[in-house]
Amino acid sequence: MERYSKITNKNQREIVLLKGFPCVWGKCSFCDYILDNSTSKEEINKINFEVLENISGKYKVLEVINSGSCFELPEETLEKIKEIIIEKKIEKLFLESHWCYKNKVKKMREFFGIPIIFKIGVESFDYKFRNEFLNKNAKFKTIEELKEYFDSPCMMVGIKGQTKEMIDEDMEIVINNFNHATINVFVNNSSKLKRDDELVKWFIDKYSYLDQNPKIEVLYNNTDFGVGE
Question: Which among 73, 98, 105, 114 is least surrounded, fewest beta carbons within 10 Å?
Answer without folding.
Answer: 114
